[in-house]
Structures are given as structure tokens and as C-alpha cells.
Amino acid sequence: MKSFQLGVMAALVVGLVGLGSTACAEKAIQVGDGMKVTMEYTLTLPDKTVVDSTAGQAPFSYTQGKQEIIPGLEKALTGLKAGDKKRVTVPAAEAYGLYDEKKKVEVPKKNVPPEAKVGTRLRAASGSEAKVVELKGDLVVVDGNHPLAGKDLTFDVNIIKVETQPKAAKPPKP
């Protein structure tokens, strides 16, 4: 009877050790191209203004290498693992780009909704956005820069999970 109990105990120990090594192996996966990354973050400007945060919300997930997040942040997260925390400052050029004065243009007032005023965000049929920055008689000055263009951004990130993703199924051969 004792040998039976010892055998069961040994199987449990082996099973638990096996589970532990699997969990450790999963945790050790590094952020790299094709990995699904789940993280919490807070985005601040140089003056410490909080622009965006997952605090009190579900964590954010993206696929590394698919350009789903700004390039500078994606580059800085490469190699991190679940449990890693990092403060990343991304220069404007690697975030939403430098501010481009050429993206400020005058358009005829008749091409803008009549209720538009300074501060109104407009969306073109193409999906591009612009902000009304000035009304000048029959003209409206709109700024097509991203609201964060020209700003260095600081992200405080906490990597929650790094997962491999299933390979896309190949279509059957004809």
C-alpha cells in the first residue's frame, strides 16, 4: 500500500514540476515579430499630462511587427517578457512624426460643415482627419497633423502576456 501511495505522490510531484516548467517556459517568451503582446500602459507628455491609459480598463493587445502601434514603442518592447515593466520615451519622429506646417491648409468654407468652429475635428471621406484651427472669412484653416505630432511621448508599460500566435492556415492546393 505504501509503494502505491509513494507512486501517486511521485506522479503528482512530476506533474507539478512539469506544470511549473511549462509556466516558466511560457513566461520566458520574448516579445518578437508575430507575437501577441498584452500590456497595460500609461502615456504621458513631457509636461506629465496623461494622454491615455489602460488604468481601470482591460489591458491592450497588439501583434508585434504588424505596425499596430507606433514604431518607437514597438522597437523598445522587443525582447521584453511577461512581468517586465519599462518606461519608454519615444521621440516625436518615431511616434506620430514631426509637426509639418505643410499639413495646415486653407479650404473654402463651403467645403466644411456649417457648424464647424475652431477645435472641431473633421473627417474626410478618405478617412483622414483634420482639426479646424482658424476661421478666415470664406476660408477655414485646417491642420492635418496628428494631435500628437511633434511631441515626445513617454510610456510606462507592464507586459502582462506574450503569446505565440497560431500560423495562418494555408489554402488547399487546387
Spell the H/E element sequence: HEEEHEEEEEE
CATH class of the domain at 101-143: Mainly Beta
Q: What is the radius of gyration computed over CA atoms, rounded to a whole number of angstroms?
A: 25 Å
Number of helices: 2
CATH topology of the domain at 101-143, which one?
A: Thrombin, subunit H
Terminal Cα span: 61 Å
Q: Tell me, briefly, the overall form.
A: globular
Largest sheet: 5 strands, antiparallel
Average predicted confidence as pLDDT = 85
Based on secondary structure, the structural category is: alpha+beta
Q: Using the 3D structure, state the CATH architecture of the domain at 101-143.
A: Beta Barrel
Q: Tell me the total number of β-strands.
A: 9
What is the helix content? 10-25%
The proportion of residues in beta strands is: 25-35%
Low-confidence stretches: 1-27
Molecular structure report:
The protein has a domain at 101-143: Thrombin, subunit H, CATH 2.40.10. It is 19% helix and 32% strand. The longest helix has 26 residues, at 2-27. Strand 7 and strand 8 (139-143) form a beta hairpin. Strands 1, 2, 3, 4 and 9 form a 5-stranded antiparallel beta sheet that branches. A 4-stranded antiparallel beta sheet has the order 5-8-7-6, with no helix packed on it. The chain has 2 helices and 9 strands. With 174 residues, the protein is α+β, with helices and mostly antiparallel strands.
Sum up the structure in keywords:
single chain, disordered N terminus, 19% helix, alpha+beta, 5-stranded antiparallel β-sheet, Thrombin, subunit H, 174 residues, 2 helices, 4-stranded antiparallel β-sheet
